[in-house]
Amino acid sequence: MSETPSTVKQVIPDIGGNFTLDEAVIATLAPGTQVLEASSFGISKWTRIARIAARAPDGTLTSYILKCATEGGRTMMEGEYNSMLELYKLAPSFVPRPCGWGKFELAYPVTHYFLCEFIDMQHDLPDPVSFCARLADVHSKSVSPTGQFGFVVPNCHGKILQSNEWDSDWASFFTKLLESFLRIEIETNGPWHEYEQAFGAIVTTVIPQLLGPLQADGRVLKPSLVHGDLWEENAAINLATGEPVVFDASAFYAHNEYELGTWRRKNIKFGRPYFNQYLLNIPPSEPVEQWDDRIRLYSLKFNLAHMIGWPGAPFVREEIFDDMKYLIEKYPPKPQA
Length: 337
Hints:
By secondary structure, the chain is an alpha+beta fold.
């Protein structure tokens, strides 16, 4: 009987190391697939990554990417599989084909994995025209299975569990999502009275005035499938086709403009050309005059996620605070009737 790996580094060793593939992963491949090699391919902040070379039953050589995680691994891997699957159903050339997820048979601590096809990529910024057209097509064609905002399974933004329970009211959904991220951010980086006080005003005063109108006065807001973490590190160019490809999704059904919130963050390379091209495909929601403020509001969640993932990151907390102050000043409490 083989020895059970006791650390994630034994499950997938350091970059360049070969290892024996767990039987659970082999069972995820098509029956009759011959595994030729499994080797470490990289390390992300919360997962370890391997590339699997294999021979399909018809003799075709193929490759797969294997991601695995221990702490919180089930939600991360199941969530990413379902996120990528929903995107793949709509745009199979826009994402790597997801193959499955599961739990290693021989691993301690308990290790979960996500398996998808390998695409040879060039990690350059995709062309804004084709990229934004593909993205907008996903947003436009997607249909929420419940007609509400949310997702089919719990999933994570990085390693952070997202509040994604179904809700027919977008302002309510986004409030719960933002509150959950602020709570973790405070636990991670410590209390700050003025910051937390400002957040209270965002919830009670700003969100009702910015997101409430999207579903008021007879307006209908379509829940659109969003990638959920779409920045330059999660997008590339497929070398075989020259077309854009995206990965590492944390998807759910949202207001389509939510997707653009992360593009507003400082140092993100999806700048004005991407905004402009996206808006040529899908114009701003009504009220149009509030579009820029909605994007500022949505960016708060992505900056909070950054502060959770990279505690103590300089200037980002201050940027969140400044954005909140701007919105609070622009959308003060309405006088009582």
